[in-house]
Write a structure and sequence with these properties.
mainly alpha, Four Helix Bundle (Hemerythrin (Met), subunit A)
């Protein structure tokens, strides 16, 4: 019973977070969800060989990656956008391989890539906020 209540609370919390998030935060939430699904798939594989659960989690991770790819503007993003699109494609292929081979190593490879991209994304936000604060300070003087 208490687990059901906790799950309901988590669902409400996530809905609230999404409702008040800006575009940057939404992308960060997608990265968080991607990383969580990959680690959960690893756990399902390592702790009892829950193959069906692992497959479902990897499928969700792939859907998140495809959602992230949809955000990429290849026309305006230039080489950075092209490289990110290629990296997401590589990650999807590695997840398919991880699913087929039941490979924890491949899952962890993709998790590490996702964690590095997420860290960069978070860093971009902090840099942008500092830049905006400086611009506001300049205009108010």
């Amino acid at each position: 019973m208490s687990q059901l209540i906790a799950q309901q609370y988590q669902a409400i919390h996530q809905q609230s977070a999404v409702a008040y998030a800006d575009d940057h935060q939404l992308i960060q939430m997608l990265y968080d969800g991607l990383i969580e699904r990959i680690h959960s798939a690893r756990y399902a594989l390592e702790k009892g060989g829950k193959i069906e659960q692992k497959g479902s989690l990897i499928s969700k991770a792939i859907l998140i990656l495809e959602g992230l790819r949809a955000y990429i503007n290849l026309e305006k993003g230039g080489m950075v956008a092209e490289n990110l699109d290629a990296l997401y494609g590589y990650m999807v292929r590695r997840l398919f391989e991880a699913n087929y081979q039941n490979s924890v190593d491949l899952l962890m490879e993709v998790a590490q890539l996702a964690e590095e991209i997420r860290a960069g994304w978070v860093g971009i936000r902090q840099d942008a906020l500092v830049y905006l604060a400086r611009k506001l300070e300049e205009t108010s003087c």
